[in-house]
Design goal:
By secondary structure, the protein is α/β, with parallel strands linked by helices. Helix content is 46%, strand content 12%. The protein binds 6-O-phosphono-beta-D-fructofuranose.
Length: 526
């Protein structure tokens, strides 16, 4: 296969970009009264309208040709079939099996029985905690849960628990502590009663410095509050792929919920990592989330590339990233309950796509992952939208909203949605200068609009799986491994080296002058 930038499909897109660069999206609407229908896709309760993009049918045809040339279809099947597509870590990539229904073989064994068994245990445990069948040591029903984890062991469950709050039991509050900054744990513990608190330690490796330190501090708090180390087991559970280390930490077998090395951290919400969510909203709702993701998986697997939602989103991403130099992509949920979505997608996308060599270790000569950022509307309109409308940079954006709110507060939802529709139209159409150049809106800012009927667990599953597969397709086209994250290791190693040096009062001189200076300033002023 020729290198990506030398390939016929890439070169055809470069030539096509030159013809599209002077085109206005608004003109494309004028030329095609059916444009909205022609450039939108529907799956269940989810609508993707991508008509407000700088694309024609020819653009889509050329982008799809690129996807075909880069083997997106066969790579997709390889992922679903459990082949070792995470080559640097020599692992299969099977978050889809966690919500799947068909047998999938890894190392000669079907993984589905262990997935079902763990789901069954999650159901039993969450039902019992929710109904008071499982209590704290003194027989008190649990009122609070602390989830201790970071990255993929935090962002997915935190997002989903926040998003699905309308489905949550009012009798159980879930708190998330991720940061090693003691302020986070301190603030959380300050308002909790240990006798009614269940702690879940979530870590795929069970070696993550931040999580283990937070876990040890919580264990000490439980021991001190409950009066004995011997009784704290009733207040602990763990979710991990390293069950031995969880046992070494003091967890009993019945409180360890496993997942497996073929589940990447940032793809792990669908595994037992979703336990805090299952506790909050109940096992039926958790399974609805899985079912929504499964619906997207089946669509992704079967739909032709031209009508395939994750593929279309990915191709649009590649189009702006590599042919228009767009360095970032904004995620704009017009839904307060999706306020954590930008942070979740930051890890999903940037940890997957922030790579500078191909799977074979060859340096890339094109841009890979964009900077993912964003915030909930309408708040975001009053902070960074100025730059979206009139700044010099091209920032493609996804607007996401639900047609039906979970509340009955007067006109709030209509005002919210009016802003959603107005912003996407204004970004595309712009407006001529009214009196002064300061008032000119250039327009031609591309957006995707994603609407769900209502933000149910099923709809959330559809939405998150959509982005997972988008990231997969982009990385398949770029030829990079979406499932490893070697870039996070260097800083971790260095922190471990610096940590013991912070202990004494002696000045350090082992690092560069700036780092020495900073450490020494800290030592003098702490
Ligand atoms: O530092 C990055 C990372 O390895 C993520 O990929 C992962 O989600 C997170 O740390 C937490 O890891 P663990 O679940 O093993 O504690």
């Amino acid at each position: 296969m020729p290198t990506l930038t030398q390939s016929p499909a890439w070169q055809a897109l470069e030539a096509h970009q030159r013809t599209m660069a002077g085109t206005a999206i608004a003109q494309l609407f004028a030329a095609d009264p059916q444009r909205c229908g022609n450039f939108s896709l529907r799956l269940g309760e989810l609508l993707l309208d991508y008509s407000k993009n700088l694309v024609t049918a020819e653009t889509v045809r050329l982008l799809v040709a690129l996807a075909r040339e880069r083997d997106v279809e066969s790579q997709t099947q390889r992922m679903f079939n459990g082949e070792t597509i995470n080559t640097s870590e020599n692992r299969a990539v099977l978050h889809t099996a966690l919500r799947g229904a068909r047998p999938v073989t890894v190392d000669g064994a079907d993984v589905m029985p262990q997935i079902r068994a763990t789901l069954g245990r999650m159901r039993e445990f969450s039902d019992a905690v929710r109904t008071g069948g499982i209590t704290g040591h003194g027989g008190r029903q649990f009122t609070d849960i602390i989830n201790i984890g970071i990255g993929g062991s935090h962002l997915g469950p935190a997002l989903a628990t926040h998003a699905l709050a309308p489905y949550a039991s009012p009798r159980l509050r879930v708190h998330f502590v991720s940061n090693v900054d003691g302020a986070a744990l301190h603030r959380t513990l300050a308002c909790l009663d240990a006798a009614a608190t269940l702690v879940i330690v979530v870590s795929k490796t069970f070696t993550t410095q931040e999580t283990l330190l937070n876990a040890r501090s919580v264990r000490a708090w439980l021991t001190e509050s409950l009066g004995s180390d011997a009784v704290i087991g009733a207040h602990l559970a763990a979710v991990t792929a390293n069950t031995q280390l969880a046992r070494d930490f003091g967890l009993t077998e019945s409180r360890i919920f496993p997942f497996w090395d073929w589940v990447g951290g940032r793809y792990s919400l669908w595994s037992a990592v979703g336990l805090p969510l299952a506790l909050a909203v109940g096992a039926d709702n958790f399974e609805q989330l899985l079912s929504g993701a499964r619906t997207m998986d089946e669509h992704f697997r079967a739909a032709p590339l031209e009508r395939n939602m994750p593929v279309i989103l990915a191709l649009l991403g590649v189009w702006y990233n590599d042919f228009f130099g767009a360095a970032s992509h904004a995620i704009l949920p017009y839904d307060e309950s999706l306020a954590l979505l930008p942070a979740y997608l930051q890890q999903l996308d940037m940890e997957s796509s922030g790579k500078r060599v191909t799977r074979d270790g060859e340096p890339v000569d094109y841009d890979t992952g964009a900077v993912i950022w964003g915030a909930a509307g309408t708040d975001a309109q009053h902070s960074f939208f100025q730059l979206l409308h009139q700044g010099t940079r091209l920032i493609p954006a996804d607007f996401i909203a639900a047609c039906q709110p979970h509340h009955a507060l007067g006109r709030h939802h209509e005002v919210l949605m009016a802003n959603f529709f107005a912003q996407t139209a204004a970004l595309m159409n712009g407006a001529p200068a009214a009196g002064s150049a300061h008032n000119a809106f250039p327009g031609n800012r591309p957006t995707n609009s994603i609407l769900v009927e209502k933000l149910t667990p099923h709809a959330l599953g559809l939405l998150l799986a959509l982005y997972e597969h988008k990231v997969f397709v982009q990385n398949t086209i770029w030829g990079v491994n979406a499932f490893d994250q070697p870039g996070v290791e260097l800083g971790k190693r260095l922190a471990n080296r610096i940590l013991p040096e912070l202990a004494g009062g002696d000045p350090v001189s082992a690092y560069d002058a700036s780092t020495n200076g900073l450490i020494n300033f800290y030592k003098t002023h702490r």
